[in-house]
Amino acid sequence: MSSLNIENKKAHKNSYQIPPNASEHQRLNRQHELIQEMMFGEVFHSPIKHPIRILDVGCGTGAVTYHLGTRFPSAQIYGVDLATIPLDPKKPDNVTFVQGDYHDLLGSEEPHIIPGSMDFVFSRLLISGMTSWPSYILTCHTLLKPNGWLEIQETEFPYYDDSGIISSDWKWCQAYQAGARAKGLDLSCAIKAAAWMRESGFDDVHVIMYCWPHGEWMADRGHEEYRNLGVFLRTEQPKLYQAILPNMVSGMGYSEEEIRELQRDVLETLKVEEGKHKNYWVTFGRKPN
């Protein structure tokens, strides 16, 4: 099946905080590799056996979509994203890409994305773009067949160390969180996903929490699967937050110099220290028969 791009005729309710350019695509692909490494080679945790149709929501570069297409060669895999997905010459024939808004999944012009059509719906790291989580999860419930699975993987925004939350008084965090709320984003979506799933009618809801380490300290404690991720996060996270901040706090009255000061605060607070981390939550549940 060939790639399909659908022009979204409605204003997007979600938006990228970082332009999806070649540099961002490279970062996302490396991030995908390291998440899989952290999970000992796994990409998802739902007990999927013989799927016919799978939906990857917010598929970005298509890394997970390609993985699913290879893992389940007899299934049809659909990847949905706001932006045009960069096509890989090695794209499996059973992968189709649809360009559109997450909230408009039920209104998609793709004839196979319809109620009761999916065996598995997957999304990962939509925290900076999803503006209506309960509605999205209810939509996924509608799209799934009975006994189909939904899996959501998200980071929890606060930073921790071994003593607890350490980022409450970081100036850039306070501004970032206020900007996110103003834009309708929920930075606590990771810890709320299980309750939202249950409220939408899912059964067998499971939660697995991973560490999102800032530096190599997890590997130094004997968890070697975290070493490369820790290096990546201590290098890339400060740059990522510096890049997102101007857009996140836009319209909140900050001057250019005040934004630059917040960006400097990112570097100051995200120095490598023992135990510094965020949490990465995997939540999955089953639509009842």
TrEMBL record:
GO molecular function: methyltransferase activity
UniProt-recorded name of the protein: S-adenosyl-L-methionine-dependent methyltransferase
Organism: Letharia lupina
Pfam families, alphabetized: Methyltransf_23
Region feature Disordered, mapped onto this chain: 1-24
InterPro entries: SAM-dependent_MTases_sf
